[in-house]
Amino acid sequence: MRKRKIRRRPRVSESMPSSVIRSARYDPDRGILDILFTTGRRYLYHDVPPVEADAFRAAFSKGRYFNAHIRDSYAFTEVAS
Prior knowledge:
By secondary structure, the chain is an alpha+beta fold. The chain has 2 helices and 5 strands; from the N terminus they run E-E-E-E-H-H-E.
């Protein structure tokens, strides 16, 4: 019997065409959305489901989507610089 390899969704990091968000990375295994703002502050948003991360990535306005759906909806940790 052949072993099947399990393909995991890769961590996705991308620059954002946003005046507020510099970049975002999502770790589907841990459910963490890592956001770096243009101010240099970085936050980890916990227990973010993949569908939410995908919607954020697909949103025309990343800042508006973040404010409406992520900022006050998920626990977060600020990462010290």
